[in-house]
Amino acid sequence: TQLLEQSPQFLSIQEGENLTVYCNSSSVFSSLQWYRQEPGEGPVLLVTVVTGGEVKKLKRLTFQFGDARKDSSLHITAAQPGDTGLYLCAGGTNSGYALNFGKGTSLLVTP
Amino acid sequence: GAGVSQSPRYKVAKRGQDVALRCDPISGHVSLFWYQQALGQGPEFLTYFQNEAQLDKSGLPSDRFFAERPEGSVSTLKIQRTQQEDSAVYLCASSPLGDTQYFGPGTRLTVL
Q1: Chain B CA closest to residue A42
Q2: Regions of chain B with pLDDT less than 70
Q3: Cα separation of B109 and B90, whole Å?
Q4: Chain A residues interacting with chain B (CB cutoff of 8 angstroms)
Q5: What is the nearest CA distance from B103 to chain A, expressed in angstroms?
Q6: Residue B34's Cα: distance from chain center in Å?
Q7: For testing the chain A interface, which of B35, B101, B102 should be mutated: the one with the most A CBs within 10 Å?
Q8: CB B63 within 8 A of CB B86
Q9: How many Cβ atoms from other residues are within 10 Å of residue B58's Cβ?
Q10: What confidence tens digit (pLDDT) does each residue in B11-33 have?
Q11: B5 touches chain A (CB under 8 A)
Q12: Predicted confidence band at A97 (pLDDT cuts at 50, 70, 90)?
């Protein structure tokens, strides 16, 4: 059972466009992480957000954690083909150490 | 430095066969996790070790799944009497205690 819902499930855009993907839950998370996974590889951590309302920037990527710590968004500015991949959000809970992952957003950026 | 490695990278098994999947974590990492990722899904937690102790196995789908980490380093996930629904990518992750999890490339298991 996956507690995190990600949308959209698929996204195909052209180089230079902006996009936002969403991660929503009815549960409160102590922290939320975003990963990118490429075919045949394991997920690679992009960022961890822990404070409600927190905004973090990583070059062209902007991550936001909702005030109630139930949702998050990832915004990519001027997407590039190298941004292509599966973007996964994962929540950590105070009661455990295992990560709860969403199903992911599969992003394709074409030149 | 070396990351998390997993072997084999690909495994094809006939239904009913037993398989063993290996994970070599980053040296010195206390925590080790196994996840199962079905096609088109996000990873789902299977089990967690802290050193050699298996502290949580609540995600193992059935008693056909067994994991061990006898010396607190290398871990093996064993699946007995494989079934088609076991087909998935099995991911291993390690971390210093309570910190970021670093994932291996996974083992893709196909059960025919």
Answers
A1: B105
A2: 1, 98
A3: 7
A4: 2, 4, 6, 35, 40-45, 48, 88, 90, 96-104
A5: 5
A6: 4
A7: B101
A8: no
A9: 10
A10: 999 999 999 999 999 999 999 99
A11: no
A12: confident
